[in-house]
Amino acid sequence: MTLETRSLHEEFIRTFYKLIQLAKIHEDNNQMLLECIKEFMQVIRLLVDDDRITLQISRGNIYLQDEKLRYRRETDSLTNNLFRYLEKRNLSGLCFLSDIQDASAKEIIDFSRTLNTAEQQEDPLKWFVQELENQGVAWVEVVYEQDAPPEEHPPETDPQDQIKKRKERARKSYFCALDSLTEVAEKISYQKKVGVRKSLRVIQNMVDLVMEDEPILLGLSTIRDYDDYTFTHSVNVAILSMCLGQRIGLSRTSLHRLGVCGIFHDLGKLDIPIEIINQAGKLNQSEFEEIKKHTIHSVAQIIKLEAPHDLKAKILLPPFEHHLKYDLSGYPKTNRKKSVSLFGRIIALADVFDAITSPRVYRNIAFTPDQALNIMLDGAGTDFDPILLKIFINMLGVYPIGSLLELDTGELALVMETDKTSDGARPMVALLASDGNGDYVKVGVADLAERDAQSGAFRRNIVKSIHPSTLGIQPAEFLI
Amino acid sequence: MPEQSKKNGIDFHEHGQTAQELQAVEAVIASFVMAAKNYAIYPESHATCQNSLQTVKSRLDAFIENYGDLRFEVTKDRLLFKSETVQQDDPKTEKLAFPLFRDGIQWLEFKQGLELWEISGFFKIYNDYKMLQEEAEGDLVTALWEMDFPHLQYSATDVLWKAETLADFSTLKVTDSETPDAAMQEQADDDQQDVADTTEAAPDAGIGLTLSTMDRTIWQLTPEESRILKQMVAQEEQQSGTQDVLDVLELILRNQNQPEDYSSILEFIKEEFKSALAQGNFQIALDFLEDLRKTYQSYKIEKPWARPLLGDFFIDISGTQVLGVLKQVLPTLDKQHTDRIEIFRRLFLRFPPAAITALAPLLLEKLSVSVERKLMEIIGSLALKDIHPLEQLLDRPEEALVKKLVFIIGHIKGEKTGQILLEMTHHESAWVRLEALKALVRRDENMTKELFPLIDDPVLPIRRMMWKYLEKHQDPETGNLIRNYLDHKKIRREDHEQILNCYKTLVRCDSQSFVPFLRESLISQGLNFSFDRSLRRQGAALALLELDTEEAQEVLGQASKSLFPNIRSAYQKAVKVHK
After folding, report:
1. Coil, helix or strand at residue A443
2. CB burial class (10 A; 0-12, 13-18, 19+) of residue A343?
3. Contacts of residue B176 in chain A, CB cutoff 8 Å?
4. CA-to-CA distance for B553 and B575, rounded, in angstroms?
């Protein structure tokens, strides 16, 4: 495969994926969508030979025109996303015939929307094929498994195995992150020199995971440790920030820096007397003033780390800013008129979300994730960047991963996968039941979007969300 | 693990490789070892390093072309190729495998399309991280990950954590088992004081339904928001953020109350300040420095202990370690960058004179005329406060630099600079001597006695300048100096013009008093036919002709009628020249 061909194949994947994503959220006359269609058609024109373009997935790989798309780090995330997208629709591939060049923009949009909607159907593949026939779309055909090209080498693991390994990696990364942070804190408290090698390594692993499988990382961010809030909080903030950063298109290097930022954003709390941090009662004014200094202390601590200067320069600003608020009405009070940096705004979102969804020694109220998002929505434009907040909510979903729901069937459900449909309120859930000893076990999986075949009504409905800690449930145990 | 292969016997086909393939691998390894060694000894830009890289590249390219991508497995002290040992660490030479093993790298693969910058980057990383401090800033894996070489892949394990690292969620406590005190329910949160005000008044758990019943389009981005987001991300990826960092650092600094912490912040600020200069961001640097100076002034009362630390900081940033970055920046500025050049000037006028030591050598770079002029202005202004740093630089071996520094000194008034210039008139470089002389001549001070030796300077332009100077200072002192010079000078043929000038000038200094001397020079020693004598006679005759007094005419009359042909000849030659 020449470099030119490879670029064209990648371009096809890119424009195709972009098209189906844009068609999901924009109206027909949206300029970005129309531009994307143009781009896509241009690539089609260049690529179509022998009257067709064939896109297939098989044994964990993507094939275009029977040629396997080679692994490249830059396109890894995109190809994974497309692979999962087709998998969810039970599609082994699509074949675009040359007549597509005569299709109108409307036809392309309708096709994309049909493809998007297929996921929600009981039998996505069957439904999709039927819809194509109903709509009279003659320029695309479905590719079936038996048409898949021969594999050069046998795959090392099957997809389920890969997911299992990823979860294991994710779990290990989380605890390694906690471990590295604990070590840093310990050394700081003994006023020793502190290297950041471990923290950098573990965050790099997490960046790789974010790019491969965001839901797994989001599942990790549900972890709570009542006794050791600060460290789990810092790791969760790092995870949530990286996930949000990935959503908005930050580069790999920036994601890494954002993650390191997140993990160290509250390092300054080590300089606050522990009695104030763990104060059960209300803080008086001077205690609160003391707490507020942690943002400044965090910067001072970061500067002292044994880390490359460039990295420290990049990560010290957000810890300083993360309580400033979007409208600069927060703390520390300065004469600076400059707006909070992008990383600072991201960290602020992640910080508040994790904080208000965590039970604390001084606060009995911990909000469920969906409640927290609702509250944060009120802060759009004042406390939080409104654009980032939108993306954050979109990322987590109405019922974020790890939300515990009471259903009208009397069942207890833990959200496993966010609902990406336009409605957004009917995610995939794990059904939990008490084991009689005060713990809970997973007894099944359900799709809340599932309807009764006869009545058409939803089989299960949400009554309310419950904070997992009220039942002593650690969501990550069921998710990862 | 298979036994180490030997060249004379073992089955090389055991794992599918051929003898030629192994040889090619070993050639690649040899080039790796050499490159690693050279990177340790020489700077990256050194020809030896560059040649090593080229060798690595050519051997890798050759291998990949014939046999495909090259993958090495890594063990504690060896590199393996298809399970054959192709390199074993030797404690006496470069240990290639161990640092890779130490950081958990299991294999390295060099792929088709590998470019020179990737190879260079790899060896730089290897050199930077082959030895680690106890508290390391990173390692080979963190650096490789950061670089993300497109044609160099690797796999690494988590070696930094013990195998028994906890990975069990059940050890994490979800909530406190004790019932919380009722009073706590009304307590506000510390970190989320503002959100807590909202949360306490928040409705009960039915809120989730509110979010779920909202139209989902309210949290979908509009095209305008998408555009703003794209801009935000692009800005974040591209900008350096130096200004923001410096702003915050200044705030942090003001909040420090311990000298040790204060110093560590200053050390960091120094690097960031250096970054600003390296980016050519003179405005940021200037604003920062001005603020810091104000802080310095305020510390007389507020934090007297911090003043010396700040004072040291200003000296620190004046050194070559920081200002050396300007070497790359200044040559990029030209007459189009008038504003920036002006800000550059304003910035460096705020530096202490110690900065001269770092700034002056920049005059050796290829600078535009305007930049060079500004730089010289800056150096001159700083030298007004303290000439010493500039003076010390005059010992530098670079002639071109010293000449420019002498030019600068020449524009600084004062006794001290006069002395310095005078010393420089003895410099081994003619250019420097000339420059110093020009500066002294410009001063319009009478330094005849001090400068007089320059009439004997080996370089003609200097001698000529000296004569012009003497012509402006025709007085008895000058005359005596010339007389003394003539008395002791051993004349050579090349001194012809010089000697004649001496006599001409002599007579202008104090015309009458030198007539006896001139008589002596012209008429005595009639039997001395040496060139020396002959030239003196000619000179004396010329001088007398110029004098044109009665007494002079009388001496000339004697010479014209002398019995000695050499005296008559001298007279005649002088008359010819004088006409």
Report:
1. strand
2. buried
3. 226, 359, 361
4. 12
Flag whether residue B209 sits within 8 Å of chain A, measured between CB atoms.
Answer: yes
Distance CA B91, CA B471 (A): 77
What sign results for the dihedral spanned by CA atoms B494, B499, B502, B507? negative
Nearest CB partner across the interface for A172, out of B167, B265, B268: B167
Other CB atoms within 10 Å distance of the CB of residue A67: 14
φ, ψ dihedrals at A53, nearest 5°: -125, 125
Residues 364-423 of A with CB under 8 A from B: 364-365, 367-368, 370-371, 373-379, 383, 387, 389-391, 393-394, 398-399, 403, 422-423
Q: Report pLDDT digits (tens) over B436-469.
A: 999 999 987 888 888 999 988 989 899 888 888 8
Question: Does A249 contact B230 at a Cβ distance shorter than 8 Å?
Answer: yes
Tokens of B238: 């591209």
The pair of structure tokens assigned to A58 is 């098989």
Integer Cα distance of A186 and B68 in angstroms = 49
Tens digits of residue pLDDT in A204-221:
999 999 998 898 999 999
Nearest-angstrom CA–CA distance, B255 and B269:
15
The answer to whether residues A352 and A378 touch, using CB atoms and an 8 Å cutoff, is: no
What are the distances in angstroms from CA B214 to CA A31, A415, B195, B219, B480?
26, 19, 22, 9, 108
Rounded CA separation A151/A61 (Å): 9
In this complex, is the C-beta atom of B194 within 8 Å of any C-beta atom belonging to chain A? yes
Chain A residues whose CB is inside 8 A of the B263 CB are none
Please choose, from the candidates A336, A193, A307, A309, the residue with its C-alpha nearest in 3D space to the C-alpha of residue B270: A309
Nearest Cβ partner for A201 among B142, B213, B247: B142
Give me the residues of B, 126-145, that contact A with CB < 8 A: 132-139, 141-142, 145
The model carries a pTM of 0.75
Q: With contacts defined as CB-CB under 8 Å, which chain B residues touch A332?
A: 251
Question: Which residues of B are less than 8 Å from A283 in CB distance?
Answer: 188, 190
Q: Starting at the edge strand that comes first in sequence, how are the strands of the sheet with B152-156 ordered?
A: B84-88, B78-81, B70-74, B105-110, B152-156
How many Å lie between the alpha carbon of B402 and the closest alpha carbon of chain A? Answer: 36
Residue B122 has pLDDT above 80, yes or no: yes
Return the pLDDT at A423: 62
- Cis peptide bond upstream of B565, omega within 30: no
Is the separation of the CB atoms in A257 and A196 below 8 Å?
Answer: no
User: pLDDT tens across B147-167, in order?
Assistant: 999 999 999 988 887 655 556
Decide if A127 contacts A121 (C-beta within 8 A).
yes
Taking residues B197-211, report their average pLDDT: 43
Q: Among B160, B233, B235, whose Cβ lies nearest the Cβ of A198?
A: B160
Q: Which residue has the higher pLDDT, A382 or B575?
A: A382
Q: In this structure, what is the dihedral angle of CA atoms A280, A282, A285, A288, given to the nearest 10 degrees?
A: 50
B173:A226 CB<8 A: yes
Task: Give B190's pLDDT tier (boundaries 50, 70, 90).
Answer: very low
